[in-house]
Specification:
- This protein is an alpha+beta fold.
- The chain has 21 helices and 20 strands.
- The longest helix has 17 residues.
- The chain starts with a helix and ends in a 5-residue tail after the last strand.
């Protein structure tokens, strides 16, 4: 049982987060709340806690879900009525799992009810009345099939890459690929080079952990199989597709590479136009440009090899490399096992679970990837050192997309991130997303805000004033921030005094250049609506007519 002091600390922490998350839900529940909705939220929050690898989720009554203001709740005002809900939920859930505890306490004079919801057990998604629920951001949704299988597979971890292919023999492997594997093994383990030279192919393949006691595995076909042997792993697919696009995004060329991937990886990377990139770094006080490869060879090789090592081949998707004029986009089927890129950058230790551990181990032994778990962090470090934007990961339940940018976006920004030793790789990765306008989780926004690195509210986030000043981006900061509300109100009332009446569209046009430039036209229109509503509530302005043609006018002489 948690003490009231501990509960208040938890509530303060939850309210400080930007918005809600998949494992936190706020509801006012002023006087009541539907038992049906409560059961659905229990299922959703329990499943999401499992998927996010946290011990509990929280459902909080008495707090506004948008502003996080404490309003108080009269839901089930007696202890027996709260305790009765434990049994009521248990009667309708998988394995009769119910709340860890239901807490009711006073917070600044307001009654708060907090439901502590345990994470679904490993291998057991939680259903309510036979239906599995989950969360998509702040929305309650059906738990999708991939998430259900992710939870179910926790109880029966299998490694598809290790499975033996009945009837397959060493004759299904490509001799050139085996020779290449021997060469890379000797580079990885030079002390074994002389001994390995005397091994038969069958002995070598076992020693390199590509086959098992002479039997051909799925990993062996992926890495060393003849092109015609790819059918042996069907319906799985082990192909790499390279696509070249022009500045308009139109496809100019493409090629598909098949097994053996130990050879196809080099062939696919050979298609990429890795030209020289020149830039002048103002911090070096020289007129002579630096000259580097557009793409750091290690970074793009690691990105492709990671796609090979961690794809979910059973989903039947190809590994893709899409080459644009200034970036490369790698993608593969399968969820991102560590959950988030922050987890990879924070932890020095490798992941405990891998989708294709046998395949990944073989690729380490063949010097195709670094020691398992260290490659991604090294990719980020190399991009940081050469002042290029960090890799951008887009992660969904069944797909991982990695973008490698081949140019410097902002040299001052890059210099700051490279030289500021107080910024961790996690900090830089999150700021990199801000630079590219990428989506940030509520936890990431809260983290950056506490460090004073960003301002604004989701989804309109921009770098903080202090950081903008350091970067010499004062003008850009002001454009992002826009005029404050009072100054916008002054512009509106002054214009109405001058012109008598204006439509909402005309007022939006008036404020178009002074509202934050990270707002699109629809959001600017909505922002103007908000300002007009507040001025009307203050009895300063009013309107006549209906719809888009309505006219706004001053009610008071503002001097």
């Amino acid at each position: 049982m948690l003490t009231e002091r501990e509960l208040i600390e938890i509530l303060n922490r939850l309210r400080a987060m930007e918005g809600e998350t998949e494992v936190v839900e706020f509801k006012w529940a002023q006087n009541s709340f539907s038992d049906e909705d409560l059961g659905q939220y229990f299922s959703a929050l329990s499943n999401e806690a499992n998927l996010k690898a946290v011990e509990y989720s929280w459902l909080v009554f008495g707090v506004d879900n948008k502003t996080h203001d404490v309003l108080g709740s009269n839901y089930k005002s007696t202890r027996p009525s709260l305790d009765a809900m434990k049994k009521k939920i248990a009667d309708q859930t998988t394995n009769r799992i119910t709340f860890e505890e239901i807490y009711a306490f006073k917070y600044n004079g307001h009654r708060i009810v907090m439901f502590q919801i345990p994470a679904a057990p490993l291998g057991l998604p939680i259903a309510y009345k036979g239906h599995y629920y989950g969360r998509d951001g702040e929305s309650l949704v059906a738990l999708n099939l991939q998430e259900i299988e992710r939870i179910r597979n926790q109880g029966r971890v299998t490694d598809w890459s290790k499975e033996i292919i009945a009837g397959a023999t060493i004759n299904d492997l490509d001799p050139e690929a085996i020779a290449k594997a021997r060469e890379k093994f000797a580079e990885k383990y030079p002390k074994l080079a002389d001994e390995a030279a005397g091994w038969s192919d069958a002995t070598f393949l076992d020693k390199a952990k590509i086959t098992i006691k002479g039997k051909i595995t799925n990993a062996a076909i992926i890495l060393l199989g003849k092109e015609e042997s790819e059918v042996l792993i069907s319906p799985a697919v082990a192909t790499i597709r390279w696509i070249l696009k022009d500045h308009n995004g139109q496809e100019r060329d493409y090629q598909i590479f098949h097994c053996p991937l130990i050879l196809s990886i080099d062939a696919a990377l050979g298609k990429i136009r890795n030209l020289k990139y020149r830039y002048i770094n103002p911090e070096l006080k020289t007129l002579f440009p630096d000259e580097v490869d557009t793409y750091e060879p290690y970074v793009i090789r690691e990105a492709l090899n990671n796609s090979v090592a961690h794809s979910d081949y059973r989903l039947g998707g190809q590994i893709n490399i899409v080459e644009f004029e200034d970036k490369l986009v790698f993608s593969n089927k399968g969820g991102f096992i560590p959950g988030s890129i922050e987890n990879v950058l924070k932890d020095d230790s490798p992941e405990e679970n891998y989708r294709n551990f046998f395949l990944a181990t073989a690729m380490v032994n063949l010097k195709m990837v670094d020691t398992i778990g260290s490659g991604i962090k090294k990719m980020y470090t190399k991009q940081r050192e050469r002042l290029f934007p960090l890799p951008v990961y887009e992660i969904s339940n069944d797909r991982v997309v990695v973008t490698i940018t081949g140019k410097i976006i902002d040299i001052n920004y890059s210099n700051l991130l490279a030289r500021n030793k107080q910024l961790s790789l996690v900090d830089i990765e999150l700021l990199n997303r801000v630079q590219f306008g990428q989506k940030l989780s509520s936890e990431a926004v809260s983290y950056l805000r506490k460090k004073g690195l960003i301002e604004g509210r989701k989804p309109n986030i921009y770098i903080s004033k202090n950081l903008a000043t350091t970067l010499g981006k004062k003008v850009e900061y002001s454009k992002h921030r826009g005029l404050d509300e009072n100054k916008c109100n002054t512009l509106i009332t002054s214009a109405l005094k001058e012109h008598g009446t204006l439509t909402k569209a005309e007022i939006t046009s008036l404020l178009g250049d002074v509202l934050s430039d990270i707002l699109d036209e629809d959001k600017k229109y909505a922002k103007v609506g908000y300002l007009l509503k507040k001025l009307r509530q203050q009895d300063i302005i009013d309107y006549s007519g209906k719809g888009a043609t309505s006219k706004w006018f001053l009610k008071k002489d503002i001097g």
